[in-house]
Amino acid sequence: MRTLLDFEKPIAELENKLEDMKRLAAENNVDVGVAVQTLEDSIGQLRRETFQNLTRWQRVQLSRHPDRPYTLDYIERMCDQFIELHGDRTVADDEAIVGGLGELAGQTVLFIGQQKGRNTKQRQQRNFGMPNPEGYRKALRLMKLAEKFGKPIVTLIDTPGAFPGLEAEERGQGEAIARNLRDMFLLKVPVICIIIGEGASGGALGIAIGDRVLMLENTWYSVISPESCSTILWRSRDYKEQAAEALKLTANDMLGNGLVDGIVPEPLGGAHLDFEAIAQTVKETILSTLGELNQFSPEERINQRIEKFSRMGVVQE
Amino acid sequence: MSWFTRKDKGIQTPTEAKREAPDGLWYQCPNCKKVTHTREHRALAWTCPHCNHHERIGSADYFSLLFDENQFSELDANLTSGDPLHFVDTKKYPERIRATEKKTGLKDAVRTGFGRMNDLDVVIACMDFAFIGGSMGSVVGEKIARAIDYALAHKIPFVMISRSGGARMMEAGFSLMQMAKTSAKLALLAEAKVPYISLLTDPTTGGVTASYAMLGDFNIAEPGALIGFAGPRVIRETIGKDLPKGFQSAEFVLEHGFLDFIVDRKDLKMKLSGLLEMLR
Ligand SMILES: [Zn+2]
């Protein structure tokens, strides 16, 4: 069953109409070629109009679309082989973050990503993509492993935030994220970070320090979710649309402000409409970006990585 | 995460007001309610002689406690906030900044400087909670980054005093990236083997905990300080029940292995300089 967002519904209605028309024509053996063509044209036009004028809040909705591809959906489609690796070697294996070695067009790449669940059971298993400290520590362990064997790192970011729970605090959620931020700056291998869904605050940043940070077209990345921002500033969740506007959290906003390095285009209508196509685009993006990054020495990459983030911010002298 | 305020204990009353209350001569402790002469309270580094409650103090107070004869050179004193996102909530962000400047006499939520502490060269960055909940935006990130640059260039130990609700919402993505920027500089400081002491004071939460505050060679805290990543309200809502007593206190964080020790503010200067002396 497809889930439809409000602004997807008018398009879906026309699509249903088109299906009906085709079916009736086939059953009654009449030629409706012209009518079909007209309807297809209007569907295309409506889709273009809708998706060229998305509000920031609509992009947030798309980033959370229940049918949207998640980390493992990409890995499965991009890699010829994937060996998942588990555990932080201290406390547990956090299933909200997956990691492992993948074979990508003949080269070995370490993949890390937050993983959301598709149904109730999976969502619980994956903790809604909200990692505990063990997830961040597993991620860092695997990144150091990749560094040891000279393999590039790709992180896929999709989280509503680091988990705000009792045990997470006991086991040092803040420390785990902080350590990742610092240590990722010194990784000698290329690091590519791609926001594939939600990029919420420190929970996202904890695996998003890279030589290139890219955002898929319909994703968001900011210091807080629109709902939480609304709650704090307006004392109600009802102002999430305004909050989304104020936070300037879309891929376009973040690129325009120099806070990310690029945007990966999605199929018209969103990544969820064509898993194969978006996985192929992401794969090609990773390969070409790796090609660029391989031209630099490890020292050059580390210096550029530090320089890039050091320039971020707007102050008046 | 964002800045937040705690409702209990009248903590939202500005520090200045409390310290002067009721008539400029007497300080009433918000914890035990007992009254102390302000001169005595000041002599005790703004801790309560009855219950040892550590009053929330600001950068000027810490500088006077730590720098010899209160002599120091301030770095980037005139750095102020831009408004990159043209952020408007109930107030325009630049108006909020100006109003806060006027109220507090501060330019933003951190001040940085270098000087001598018991004859040791030191760079100190200290946050001011009075400035929009000590929230971290571009100015805070940039001033800390430059203070670390100074420590690096001169091979002088760096002391960071945190007191913050976390990242500043009004600079959204820019605020988030200050976590990255400060951590990048601390990576360089660590590589250069220049000592870094992080002092966490009440409260230290959100993006500050998840970046520079937890990255010290030594993480230390004042007694009773609230320290955490998520704020207590958010955690309470997540788990749907009350939090255990003492949860996220400095003592709790020490017990769970994330602090080296807790330091009474009256001993702070001695402990800091003693520690740095041992590393020379
Ligand atoms: Zn007291």
Task: Give the gist of this structure.
The complex is a heterodimer of chains A (317) and B (280). With 317 residues, chain A is an alpha/beta fold.
What count of structural domains of chain B?
Answer: 1
Unreliable parts of chain B: 1-21
Largest sheet of chain B: 7 strands, mixed
What is the CATH-assigned architecture of chain B? Alpha-Beta Complex
**What's the arrangement of strands in the largest beta sheet of chain B?**
3-5-6-7-8-9-10
Number of helices of chain A: 14
C-alpha termini separation of chain A: 56 Å
Largest sheet of chain A: 8 strands, mixed
On the 0 to 100 scale, the average pLDDT of chain A is 96
Structural class, from helix and strand content of chain B? alpha/beta
Spell out the key features of this protein:
heterodimer, A: 317 residues, alpha/beta, 2-enoyl-CoA Hydratase, Chain A, domain 1, 2 domains, eight-stranded mixed β-sheet, 16% strand, B: 280 residues, seven-stranded mixed β-sheet, two-stranded antiparallel ribbon, 10 strands, globular, disordered N terminus, binds zinc ion
Give an overview of the whole structure.
- The complex is a heterodimer of chains A (317) and B (280).
- With 317 residues, chain A is α/β, with parallel strands linked by helices.
- Chain A folds into two domains: 6-53; 60-310, 2-enoyl-CoA Hydratase, Chain A, domain 1 (Alpha-Beta Complex), CATH 3.90.226.
- Chain A contains 14 helices and nine strands.
- In chain A, helix 6 runs parallel beside helix 8 and helix 10 crosses helix 11 (240-247).
- The longest helix of chain A is centred in the first third of the chain and has 20 residues, at 9-28.
- The radius of gyration of chain A is 21 Å and the shape is globular.
- The model of chain A has no long low-confidence stretch (mean pLDDT 96).
- Chain B is of the alpha/beta class and 280 residues long.
- Chain B has a single domain (57-279), classed as 2-enoyl-CoA Hydratase, Chain A, domain 1, CATH 3.90.226.10.
- Helices cover 35% and strands 18% of the residues of chain B.
- Chain B has ten helices and ten strands.
- In chain B, the strands form two sheets. Chain B has a seven-stranded mixed beta sheet, sandwiched between helices. In chain B, strands 1-2 form a two-stranded antiparallel ribbon.
- In chain B, strand 6, helix 5 (138-154) and strand 7 form a beta-alpha-beta unit.
- In chain B, helix 5 runs parallel beside helix 6 (172-191).
- The longest helix of chain B has 20 residues, at 172-191.
- The N and C termini of chain B lie far apart (37 Å).
- The relative contact order of chain B is 0.13.
- Classes of the chains: A alpha/beta (317), B alpha/beta (280).
- Chains A and B meet through helix 7, helix 8, helix 9, helix 10 and helix 14 of A and strand 4, helix 5, helix 6, helix 7 and helix 8 of B.
- Strand 9 (315-316) of chain A pairs antiparallel with strand 4 of chain B, so a sheet runs across the interface.
- Zinc ion binds next to loops of chain B.
